[in-house]
Each structure stands twice: as C-alpha cells, then as structure tokens.
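Renewal narrative, Specific Aim 1. Our central claim is that a sequence can be written position by position from structural information alone. The example that follows is taken directly from our test logs and has not been curated for this report. It begins with the structure tokens describing the chain, in the order in which they were read.
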C-alpha cells in the first residue's frame, strides 16, 4: 500500500534485519542485544498503525459459546462384512503379531522394533472402510466383483448412502440446519438464505468427492456449495474463500484439512463438520 515506507530491501536489512538477527545470537554482546531491542521497537512503532491484533481473551467474551457434538455412526451391513473379512485375513494376524512383539520389547526394556509398513496400511484400510466402503472396495479388491453383483441384484449400488452411515448422518445434520429442504437451484424458485452456513472438512480428497457426488448432488440438490482442495490452484483459493464469506446464498464450503485447516479466515460459517478425524 505504501511502497518505500520501510526503505529499500538493503536499507531495511541494515536498519532492522541485521541488528535484530545479531541480538538473537547466543554469543551476542550486551551492546548488540540492546541495538536489537531498539531496532525491534522502532520497527513496531513504524508498522503499529497498520496492524490490528486481537488476543483470544479479548474477544472470547463477545463470541457465542462453542458447542461440540459427536455423532456416532453404526457400521452398515456392508461395512461390517468387509470389516469381518479383514479380521479373518492374514493382514490382521500380521498386525496382532507386530503389536505383541512391540509390547514384549517394551516389557523387557530391549530396543523397540521398527514399525512395519503393513501395520499402517492396515490402519489406513480400516480408516477408509469406516468412512465409506467404496474407498476400499476398488476393482482390485478380491470381493469387488461378488459384492457389486450382489448389490446390482438388489437394485442397489456401492454409492447408495445407505451403505455409508456417515453420509446418512451428514444428510440429516444438513437438514437439521435448514439446508436441503427446498427445490433444486435449476427449478427457478426464489433463493432462500439458510440460517446456518457450514464448513465440511475431510482428510481425504476421495472422501470429499463422495460427499459431493453421492450426497449433495443427488440427495440435496438445493444446497449451494463451493469446494476447496489441493486440485484448486493456489492463486484461485483466496477468491473462493472471499466468495463464500461474502455471499450468504452459498450454504456449504467443502474442504480438505490439508488445504483449509490452517491460515484461512472462514468467518462466513457458523458450523463446522469433520467427516473424518486425523490419526
């Protein structure tokens, strides 16, 4: 906004940068430390009119109370079947053996064994399975053909939300927040601004795809949403955030925690949903 306000790069380094960095050296003299403090104070005085800092304790009393709710989702019959198949597999036995071996080394105070990769692969498999069976039941899965044929005979598919209780719970949560009760955006009806606006976070981009294509589009077509994940170029992300914050007609912002979990100012929403948690 004010080019040259702090001088050129060389002037800034000489006036502020070098004395401040020198004062932080453990071997700096008392004179260097004093010069660093004076340079820092001078820099603060220069930029103070342009910075507004609010401490959490200063604004917390002005904010509404934060309400945390946990929704417990019971596995669907398909998820239970896949979970039990895994429990009988060799991978499950490998996990048990590794955990037992690590526990034994801890008890005998011997050097710990290195964690083997298959343990984390197994945990990742179960994590995906609890989110949605489609995340694990890929074309390479040994049960893929049998299960898809069985679902087809029942006039169902892997992408029906009945097979993923997390999607059913998310649908009900959105309805409870007043979203998705109207017609589709293409119906020409007047747009109604919902009372609540929601951020939906997923760890996995593939799970975000499922939320968008298996839930929002077929079951809640009237819900307006934007999406922010790693596939969005960095230069376009700020405009998406600004549009969501400034346009109350947009109900939902879909995000991955990797992109939207840190450093974004998402003041347009009053509700945050974590579809899945990190480790």
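The sequence written for that structure reads:
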């Amino acid at each position: 906004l004010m080019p040259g306000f702090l001088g050129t790069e060389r002037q800034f380094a000489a006036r502020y940068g070098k004395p401040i960095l020198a004062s932080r050296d453990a071997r700096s003299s008392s004179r260097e430390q004093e010069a660093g403090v004076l340079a820092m104070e001078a820099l603060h005085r220069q930029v103070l009119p342009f910075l507004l800092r609010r401490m959490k304790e200063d604004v917390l009393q002005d904010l509404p109370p934060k309400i945390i709710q946990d929704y417990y989702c019971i596995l669907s019959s398909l998820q239970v079947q896949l979970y039990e198949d895994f429990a009988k597999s060799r991978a499950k036995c490998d996990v048990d053996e590794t955990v037992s071996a690590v526990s034994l080394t801890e008890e005998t105070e011997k050097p710990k064994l290195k964690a083997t990769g298959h343990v984390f692969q197994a945990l990742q498999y179960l994590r995906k399975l609890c989110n949605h069976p489609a995340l694990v039941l890929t074309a390479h899965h040994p049960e893929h053909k049998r299960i898809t044929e069985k679902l087809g005979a029942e006039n169902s598919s892997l992408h029906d939300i009945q097979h993923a209780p997390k999607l059913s719970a998310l649908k009900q949560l959105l309805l409870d927040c007043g979203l998705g009760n109207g017609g589709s955006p293409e119906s020409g009806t007047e747009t109604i601004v919902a009372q609540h606006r929601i951020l939906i976070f997923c760890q996995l981009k593939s799970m975000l795809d499922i939320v968008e294509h298996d839930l929002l589009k077929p079951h809640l077509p009237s819900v307006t949403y934007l999406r922010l994940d790693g596939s969005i170029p960095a230069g376009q992300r700020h405009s998406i955030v600004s549009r969501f914050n400034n346009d109350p007609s947009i109900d939902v912002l879909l995000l991955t925690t990797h992109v939207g979990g840190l450093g974004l100012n998402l003041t347009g929403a009053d509700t945050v949903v974590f579809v899945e948690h990190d480790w």
